[in-house]
């Protein structure tokens, strides 16, 4: 019998709608997934379904080989990168890809997001985001490049495309997407203002924040 988790289905739909409300995605952009606990199956959003119309029963079940095992709709076209991430990192409980404008704006000019905000330091362990070169997404090659570039970090910028974050659950992954876009927006505005040197979180404060994040389980290895 194929396992299911109705609660996770509802959480994925809720997280997708929250991401759209926060302007991290629009219409049917991006994709979200979650591992069904203690199984080799994941739930993932279907392709080309607007989040405002998506229902929990629309979420598709796939196995860790990427085969659809339950659902009337087709899974996201970017299922390969989700699958490969779960296979490479057993502690990952959720993956979220969004297309936030400020992260993308910095990505297309080759500017990496520095530690300008405390929340960004806390949720990414002070290590920021990896960068994946612009490639044709939805392919095995793209999935491999993404997993390789991200390593054991919690997120990556897909150049000319968007943001991909992981977490121990859906809430952690979404919070990382939010924190990354907040930091990107502040850094972008600071660059545009050109009012002086941009002050980053000092190394001593950064290290203290990372220790706090570890103690509170915010950056538990996944």
Radius of gyration: 17 Å
Count of individual beta strands: 8
Q: Give the domain tally.
A: 1
CATH topology: L-fuculose-1-phosphate Aldolase
Structural class by helix and strand composition: alpha+beta
The shape is: globular
* CATH homologous superfamily assignment: Class II aldolase/adducin N-terminal domain
Q: Can you name the CATH architecture?
A: 3-Layer(aba) Sandwich
C-alpha termini separation: 28 Å
List keywords for this structure.
8 strands; globular; single chain; 222 residues; alpha+beta; 8-stranded mixed β-sheet; L-fuculose-1-phosphate Aldolase
What features would you describe in this structure?
The chain is an alpha+beta fold and 222 residues long. The protein has a single domain (6-215), classed as L-fuculose-1-phosphate Aldolase. Helices cover 40% and strands 15% of the residues. The chain has 7 helices and 8 strands. An 8-stranded mixed β-sheet has the order 4-3-2-1-5-8-7-6, sandwiched between helices. A hairpin with a 4-residue loop joins strand 3 (60-63) and strand 4 (68-70). Helix 2 (79-88) packs across helix 5 (140-150) and helix 4 (118-124) crosses helix 7 (203-215). The longest helix has 24 residues, at 170-193.
